Amino acid sequence: MSQELVTYIVLGSKSRLQGVKLPSNSKFEEYLSLSFDTKENILKKLDELITSSQGELIVLLPPSCYPNNFAKEKLKKIALIGLSSWGWFQYNSKRKNLVQNIKKVSSLIRSTPSLEQGIYFSKRLYFSIGGFGSIEPMIFSEISKRLYSRIDPQKPLPALIIRTKNLQLD
Q1: What CATH number is associated with residue 30?
Q2: Could you say which of 23, 32, 46, 92 would form a disulfide bridge with 159 (CB–CB 3.0 to 4.6 Å)?
């Protein structure tokens, strides 16, 4: 059995991920990046990356954003338990603007996280729902519906830490 419990996958275009340095893999964490040229090849690459990943829990993150230590420990515990689960991270309260407030309300009402929040799910649950589905209209809308049809999400974890001043999610 693999010792990696959590696989973090950083999503972004090739140009956006070019300057992003991933943290080092550790005994319990694996960090991977998924760079893409076009939206058409994201799903195929994502399925391949999730299939080959070592972690029991998959965490999809925007570029240059990572969970804080408390959230990492929670994710490790969720993975260690081995039950099917999924959820996302809260919005960063330090970044306040109109667009984020609209996304926050949408996230609460529709139970669909945005890319800047990130999402996590157990690998077993991912394959039981048949994969990601679609990335339209929002990247996490279809997978959230699929996951929600199986089980309710966990309470959102603390907001991601942004390690860059300009957050481009293209």
Answers
A1: 3.90.550.10
A2: 92
168, part of any domain: no
40 SS3 class: helix
Residues 6+ apart with CB under 8 A from 114: 103, 106, 107, 138, 139, 140
**Which amino acid belongs to residue 29?**
E
pLDDT given for residue 114 in this prediction: 77
* Neighbouring residues of 41: CB distance < 8 A, sequence distance ≥ 6: none
Q: Give the mean pLDDT per block of 10 residues along the chain (170 residues).
A: 78 84 91 84 89 95 91 94 92 60 53 82 95 83 90 91 57
Answer yes or no: is 170 within a domain.
Answer: no
Domain ranges, residue 13: 6-162
Look at residue 54 and tell me if it is in a domain: yes
Q: Quote the pLDDT of residue 137.
A: 78
In a domain, 136, yes or no: yes
